[in-house]
Amino acid sequence: MQPALFSTQQWTVSRLTFYIRKLLEENEILQDVWVQGEISNLSRPASGHVYFTLKDSSAALKCVMWKTSAARLSLPLQNGMAVEVHGKIGIYEISGQYQLYADQIRSVGEGALYQEFLRLKSMLEAEGLFAPERKRPIPVFPHKIGIVTSATGAALRDMLNTLRRRMPLVHVILAPSPVQGMEAPPALVKAIESLNLQSPDVILLARGGGSIEDLWAFNDERVVRAVATSDAPIVCGVGHETDFTLSDFAADMRAPTPTAAAELATQITIIDLRAELQNYQSRLLSSTLNLLAEKRTLLSSLASQLRYVSPDRRIQSERQRVDELARRAYSSLIHQFQLQSSHLKGMQKRLEALNPLAVLARGYAVVTRKDDNKVVSRVAQAEQGKQIQVRVSDGQFDAEITNRQS
Amino acid sequence: MPKSSAQKEKPIEELSYEEALTELEEIVSALESEQNRLEESIKLFERGQALAARCSALLEAAELKVKKVAGDDLVPFEEESE
Question: Which of A116, A258, A378, B31 could form a disulfide with A287 if both were Cys (CB 3.0 to 4.6 A apart)?
Fold first, then answer.
């Protein structure tokens, strides 16, 4: 086919490159691809981005991995290394070169591991080992925390430091176990089992970061089953945030790191306990003060009621009555006395009037016979020659009757 | 009145944090809700104070206890010092 001399469409290099770029970017396969090959021309300039060529016996592919992805690489890259690279195909427009923008790199063996991982995952999932309804709640205030991890790793130190800082009241029981290598899976299973004999409230199953092979023990079927059937709930904190193992799926809770596992198992911290205690202390004080105030109010109201019904008032009025009576008794006594004394005076006057001596004073005399001492008031009593005694106002004298007349 | 029969037997300095806190909790709610006689209330208050002091002392003195499974036994675990 002959090219038309005057094309109907004018292309610039930029526009064409942009057009090709769109074609590539709209292709789903090219945007999510794993490519196997050998690393060559590896360079890592100061920018931190990684450049290399992936090649096999008959072709080569330019690759770039940005700094952020490169930082997450778990294996050190070397020329000649057989790897699988994941990423998307794009165009570097300045040089017109298509290349792979890589975001993950794994060693070739990992591909097979990953297939095994997926097979085991779907099998255990079908069995219901990862079912959400199997998950048990993690106690918020555990007293006994079991830890399954390496006795020498940084993971243990991180977890113990976290527990010490957040909740030093807990008892930690460590069941040390190798966490990588052939011997790790049976040892991890045994550690989980022997920890369960101590009936901890929760078990932390943990391991620090590493390559996918390093973490592989936590994808072992025996370990995953032991996690799923553990009596105590398990928090699994293996590797870094981006690492998922089958033990994570089987565990009651997944933690992104060992430190996070220790944090998730200590939701109530010593700070919470201090606050709780302080709250109780202030309630203890205020309720007692309230009670005392209540009793005091009651007491003073009773005291005023008591004053109101006090016998003092009656005593005062009785006292007044006694005074009154005493006064009346006194005045009646005085009256009686005056009465008696005027009566007495009257009697005296009358007595005086009857006094015979008073009559004698007026010149009368009392004559008595000497022999029988009888008063002579009649002539018949006066015999001739009889001796008589005559009494006058100032004395007496004797006389003899000489001339009787009747 | 709070019962806490088993704990009443124990001297306060032998109570665990949970035991002391549980009894403190009972005493506070007894003081807040029930009508107690004055002497009883004062006794409850004093006991509550002592329990709170016990809890506080336990919190401040708490040191993480770490043991290691060795066969069927537990043995002290010595952390590596850095």
Answer: B31
